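re: that chain from earlier
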Amino acid sequence: MKTFTIETLGCKVNEYESAFYTSLLEEHGYRQAKSDEKADVIIINTCTVTNTAAAKSRRKISRLKRENPHAFVVVVGCYAQVVEQEERDSLQADLLIGASHKNELVDLIEKAQNTHEPHQKDFVENSRDLTEFESMPIGVFEGQHRAFLKIQDGCNQFCTYCQIPLARGFERSQIPSEVVSSAQKLAQNGHLEIVLTGIHTGRYHFRETDLCDLLELLLEQTPEQVCYRLSSIEITEVNDRILDLMAKNPRILPHLHIPLQAGDNRTLKRMNRPYTVEEFIARIEEIRAKIPNISISTDVICGFVQESDDEFETTKKTIEACQFSFLHVFPYSRRKGTAADRMTGFVDGNIAKERTDQLLELSKTLRQRDMERFMHTQVLIEREDVHHPNWYLGYTSQYHPATIYSEVPLKGRLNVKIDKIENGRYVVSHEAENETI
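^ sequence. v structure.
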C-alpha cells in the first residue's frame, strides 16, 4: 500500500482542501504515513498571501525534496499558481497543480507516475479562465465535532495589497443542493457544528441563491442539533436578512469574523476597501443592537504603504470603538502583481512589526473583556487534551477557547459555569455544575 503525507501552509480553506486530499487518497487505497516513516507521495499545499508564507512554501518544498529523494512530490495551491514559470520549473516538483484540477489530484498523480517521463507535470492554468466551482466534498472530520464545508472560491474585490484574486481566480460558488448534501452527510457522521468557509464566503451566490438563502436551506434540511458558523464575512455583506436570521435562530452561532484591515479612511482608500470607518462602526453598532450576545473578531494589517503614525493611532481608536473580541494582526507584505506593489512610501519593516506587536497586546485585552461577558456559556467539546489527562478542549458559541476538567469522557455540547479566564482561555474545573446537551 502506497503511503502519503500532506504539509499544509496558509488559511482555513487550504486546511479544508488538505483534508479533502487526505480523504481522496485514502479512498484510492493510500495510507497516511506515520511520523517515523518515509512517504511514497508528499503533497505540499502552499500559500502566497505574504512574503513569509511564500518563503515558507519554497523552503518546505526544498527541504522535503532533499529529505525524501525517492518520494513523488506534489506542489499544489496558491504559491504554485502565482509564481513565474521559471521559478515553477526550479522547484523540480514531480507534479504542479495551481487553482484548478485539485479534485483530480489522485488521477493526476497516478497518470504522472505511469508515464515515466523525467520532467514535471505542470497543471497551472490562467486563473482568470476559472469559471466553475470545483466540488471537494468531505464526509467526515475524524475526531472532531466541528466540521468545515467549503462553499465558495475566488475573489473579485482586488484590494490593492492582495494577491488572492491572482492565485484563486474570480468568484465561483458551489451548487446549493451539493452544499446541502454535504452538510447532511456531515450531520449523519455526528458533526454538531458546520463552519461555512470560502475565500470570500459572504459573496456566495449561485444563480438565484445567495448566502442567506443557503443558510435557510441548511437550517431546513439538516437536524436541529446541527449549528452553523460563518468563517469570515465582509461588513458590506452582513445584510439585514442575515442578521434577522441570526437573531431568531440560535443554530447560527453568535460570532462573526469581519475584516477591518485598517481603521483610518486614508489607509482604507489606498487599500481599495469598499467602506469608510464611519460606515464600518455604524454597521457594527447595528449588528450588536440586533444580536446583543454576539462576538465580533477581525483582521488588521499594520504598516501598509504610506501608513503614518497618525493613521495607525486612528486605527487603534477605531478598534477600541468596535470592541472586537480578538484580532488577527499581520504586518503588510509586499506582493508582486498587486496595485500596492506599484505605490511609493513603503513603511519600514521594524515599524510595521512594532505596530503589529501593539495590536497583538490590544487583542489580549479585548479578548479578556469580551470573555468576561459570558461566564455562563455553551461549549462544543473538540477533543481530550493529549498533554493533560482528564482535561477537554473546546470552543464556545462566541468562538472563545475553553478547557474543561472531567473524570468521565466528554463529548457534544455543554452548558458550563466558568471558573476563571487564564491566558485567553476559559477554565472549567467543577464538572458537577455543568450540564450536557
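The chain has a mean pLDDT of 93.
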